[in-house]
Amino acid sequence: MVDRKIGDVILEVNNISLSFGGVKALTDISFDVCEHEVRAIIGPNGAGKSSMLNCINGVYTPQQGSITFRGKTFSNMNSRQVAVMGFARTFQSLALFKGMSVLDNIMTGRNLRMKTNIFQQAVRGFGWGAAEREEGEQREFVEKIIDFLEIQAYRKTPVGRLPYGLQKRVDLGRALAMEPQVLLLDEPMAGMNVEEKQDMCRFILDVNDEYGTTIVLIEHDMSVVMDISDRVVVLDYGKKIGDGTPAEVRANPDVISAYLGTSH
To answer: Minimal CA–CA distance to 159: which of 147, 144, 146, 148?
Structure first.
């Protein structure tokens, strides 16, 4: 665990339950997230981790419970509305535009920040109007993210030609382009080798430190979780079985038997 200045609670997940037909994906899950912390969600495959993130960012609507962000409780909100509130999400399965360049992929994350209307954007090719000025400003912002993630050499490269680890970095860049207050990361290290994991850990901590972004992440690699997380919530079969600091979770008998003792 790394030392950082943690703020007050900004996100509260209260008694969330989610079912698909007769299958319970989540049962009465509650936890909170403090400003500027790295909060990990762990558990075996099928524990409900991705379902939990999907509830937070509006992909799923839980049958029970509520989610409160900075004092505002929201329900029945779609992903765009949640994004406007200040959330961004990366996914376990990359959903990048493989034929587009690194720069253009990250630019798609600026859509929420665009103020010009469709007509203004349509005439930008003629070299006049607010849209062209705005696109220049947005591109400048994206270039800073590209520098931050150390992918300048690939800025014009089609994403599909990049190694997997760099594609995951582009995915992170697209999320950062939304200027989120809370960044939801779904297995950001999945499929990476040791060196790529080390790089991604460094970037996640730098995002937390330099941008001040609160991080909620799902991750299977326990060494990563223990190294970079402030607090960890543990799910098993859709139920919460542990919550605390990495040291507390590591010593929790329920966690050891359900997760640590079997997988690692």
So the answer is: 146
